[in-house]
Amino acid sequence: MATIGLDKLYYASITEDANGEETYGTPTVLAKAMTAELSIELNEAILYADDGAAEVVKEFKSGTLSLGVDDIGAEVASALTGATIDTNGVVVSASEDGGNPVAVGFRAKKSNGKYRYFWLYRVKFGVPATNLQTKGDSISFSTPTIEGTILQRNKVDCNGKHPWKVEVTEGASGVDDSVIEDWYEAVYEPVGTLNLSPVNFPGNASTT
Question: 1, 112 in Cβ contact below 8 A?
Fold first, then answer.
């Protein structure tokens, strides 16, 4: 089902242990969201045998997240890009800056009024782009855009894999309401694997 809205844009700081495994801080509002564009790049390998493709493997490599927001405050800019704030409250961006990766969460409204919720586990942002223009005959808003690279996280989940994204749809079969209620209390951690075969999908009875 198509989505028609975007809001509740949050980020959570990341602390890494000696092995690089992530621990997430308490989610904090990033900004008021206007747009979000997510593109994914895959690693692909094809094994040819008997003059044809015998096996195809596609794995997540990285992605790009481009966020259009209403404004980026000084503290958020510092947390996301590594910029410093001087004693006068001025944001100072230097060529040596490099922000730490963060987790990013948001939700998209569907046409039926329900929401689809997301967490991206590891996003490395660059310096926000700002469009400025002189005042003309009509009013137009200039808002910042911030772009980040999406990476898989170092910490493995309960299945021994390195997730890069989780998402859940409000009201979908098998979704615990408490997951939706607590979505912004902490970065979601996968808890297991549900077998979604036709026979075992929630609501379907066995035909045997």
Answer: yes
Is residue 127 pLDDT above 80, yes or no? Answer: no
pLDDT of 122 strictly over 70: yes
Contact by Cβ (8 Å): 161, 190: no
CA atoms within 13 A on the CB side of 49: 4
Residue 96: left (phi > 0), alpha (psi -120 to 50), or beta? alpha
Question: What confidence tens digit (pLDDT) does each residue in 44-68 have?
Answer: 666 666 666 666 666 666 788 888 7
- β-partners of residue 146 are 67
Is there a contact between 125 and 148 (Cβ–Cβ < 8 Å)?
yes
Q: What SS3 state is found at 162?
A: coil
